[in-house]
Amino acid sequence: MNKFCQSCGMPMKKDPKNGGTNADGSKSTEYCSYCYVNGAFTSPEIDTPQTMQKFCIGKLKEMGMPGFVAWFFTRNIPRLKRWAPK
Predict the structure, then answer these.
(1) What is the sign of the dihedral through the CA atoms of 46, 49, 51 and 56?
(2) Domains in the chain: how many in total?
(3) Burial 10-43 (b: 16+ CB within 10 A, else e)
(4) What is the pLDDT of residue 85?
(5) CA angle, corner 16, sides to 50 and 39, nearest 5?
(6) How far apart are the first and last CA of the chain?
(7) What range defines the domain where residue 75 resides?
(8) What HEC string does 5-74 produce?
(9) pLDDT tens figures, 19-54
(10) Fewest CB atoms within 10 Å of the CB: 20, 35, 51, 68?
(11) pTM
């Protein structure tokens, strides 16, 4: 199991459902339940690491985190497996 979601970078231990679900209903060890359900990514409009980073910074700021800290926590999103060049 990955320590972080390979789409958004959230620590997997923070996921209330302990991971997303694959198409066969099994638990995903790579993606969190916010990003991945039934074998598909939940937000098709988020299609680049930059869009994901912007989205996550917005969510963290909504939770009261200062902008710089939110950026710091999301800075590795472009290096995650989902966003690796194919």
Answers:
(1) positive
(2) 1
(3) bebeebeeebbbbeeeeebebbbbbbbbeeebee
(4) 87
(5) 60
(6) 22
(7) 12-83
(8) CCCCCCEHHHCCCCCCECCCCCECCCCCCCCEECCEECCCCCCCHHHHHHHHHHHHHHCCCCHHHHHHHH
(9) 999 999 999 999 999 999 999 999 999 999 999 999
(10) 68
(11) 0.92
d(C-alpha 73, C-alpha 8), whole Å? 10
| φ, ψ dihedrals at 66, nearest 5° | -60, 150
- Is the pLDDT at 1 greater than 80? The verdict is no
Establish if 3 belongs to a structural domain: no
The answer to the question of residue 2 being in a domain is: no
Q: Quick check: 86 pLDDT over 90?
A: no
The tokens for 5 are 């979601």
